[in-house]
Amino acid sequence: MAFALVCISGAPVFAQQTAAKAHIRVSLLTTYRAEATRSMSSTGSDLAVGQSGTIGVYGDFSGSRGAGGWPIGVGDDGFAWRVEARLVSVQFDNVEVAISWGRYRPVTGREAAEVGDTRVINLKSNERHVLDLVQSEKPESPIFNLVVQVEARQTEDPAFANVSIGYDLWLVYEDSAGTRTTRRAQPVGGQGEMTQFAFRPFGFALDGKAVPADGNAPITVAVDGAVLGRIRSDGAIELAVDGRLGLGCGPGGLGGSGGRRTYVAHDGETVSVEFPWAYGWCGWDTSATVPASARPGVSRTKTGIRVTSREFFKGDKLSLLVTARRAK
Fold first, then answer.
1. What are the tens digits of pLDDT across the range 146-202?
2. Residue 137, Cβ neighbours under 10 Å: how many?
3. pLDDT of 69 above 80
4. Is 280 helix (H, G, I), strand (E, B) or coil?
5. pLDDT per residue as tens digits for the range 104-151
6. Chain centroid, CA 79 distance in Å
7. What whole-number distance in Å separates Cα of residue 315 and Cα of residue 58?
8. The whole model's pTM is what?
9. 9 and 269 Cβ atoms separated by less than 8 Å
10. Residues pairing with 118 in the sheet
11. If DSSP codes are grouped into helix, strand and coil, which group holds residue 62?
12. How far apart, in Å, do the first and last CA atoms of the chain sit?
């Protein structure tokens, strides 16, 4: 889902600042066979743009794991991963890293490289990039697989380490007749912290009229996501908004789409992020017929009723108003 950005208070500040450093983290994720439980060990390094560093992790299928990577120092089932990372660039919501990595096994008096490659990756906040996966070949092993992944995020300025950002979020649904219904959320997050939000769902009857969004609502629209804010030295606030729009029909779960929008605004400036209605449809099994008052997009199938999103909500608008302020 793509976002359309509309500034409704003042002129947005679009000048960008490039951060000097980013934290590169390499993690070993261990998946156990029993109840598919997982555990993780990780290590990382702060790098300046243009700087390189070597990061390593190791583990085996008996549960041993840790940082360092080489020499392995574990049994015959052990693996070590050596990751050489060079920080290419850092923009607010994107870290570009050149990676050269290899997987190693211990042999008598030396290490043997098994697999590896060189790649350039771009990572947003909270994104993980998988480098390698190894599955156990022994059914009796308590561990099913080992996964090595890399993350990266901008290193925060120590001057803003204890800063909090307050968000005032309004979700506005406006039907084709101009009637508005709103929801509000006011989360608070730290500098550079991805802060979650969720709104109480909207419920609709098949004729488009608002109804309580409980288990009996024929159509449900829900929006949640996360917002990341970072105060810059010039006082402006860099923001990344992740939004997910879910469409549900009858007793079924929600399905939909999501996207991310980044921008820079003044402290206290309000920006409107518009949600396009997702392509697709939802439905449920029922013997009921489609009422004559139903909106376009509602149709009868062999087993039930289907609602096509863009036809049903044609002419309606759904937007998120975002205001960010330095809280302390």
1. 999 999 988 888 888 889 999 999 999 999 999 999 999 999 999 988 999 999 999
2. 8
3. no
4. coil
5. 887 655 566 788 999 999 998 778 999 999 998 888 888 889 999 999
6. 30
7. 56
8. 0.75
9. yes
10. 100
11. coil
12. 34
Which string of DSSP letters, residue by residue, matches 202-255?
EEE-TTS-EE--STT-SEEEEEEEEEEEEE-TTS-EEEEEEEEEEEEETTS--E
Sequence-separated (6 or more) residues with CB below 8 Å from residue 46: 21, 22, 23, 24, 155
Kindly tell me the burial class for residue 178, based on how many C-beta atoms sit within 10 Å of its own C-beta (0-12, 13-18, 19 or more).
exposed
* Predicted local distance difference test score (pLDDT) of residue 121: 96
Task: Reply yes or no on whether the pLDDT at 4 is more than 80.
Answer: no
Cα distances from 7 to residues 13, 16, 127, 260, 265, in angstroms, run: 10, 17, 28, 16, 9
Q: Return the SS3 of 310.
A: helix
Contact 62, 78 (CB under 8 A): no
State both tokens at 176.
């084709």
- Cβ atoms of residues 245 and 320 within 8 Å: no
pLDDT of residue 228: 92
Rounded Cα distance between 119 and 28, Å, is 19
Spatial distance between the Cα atoms of 149 and 89, rounded to a whole number of angstroms: 20
What per-residue confidence (pLDDT) applies to 5?
41
**298-300 β-sheet, strand order:** 281-285, 304-308, 298-300
Q: For residue 96, how many other CB atoms are within 10 A of its CB?
A: 17
CA distance 92 to 142: 41
| Percentage of the chain lying above the pLDDT 90 cut | 47
The Cα 203–Cα 166 span in angstroms is 28
The CA distance from 7 to 169, in Å, is 14
Q: How would you list the strands of the sheet with 110-123, edge to edge?
A: 65-67, 52-59, 79-91, 94-107, 110-123
Q: What is the pLDDT of residue 170?
A: 97
Length of the chain: 328
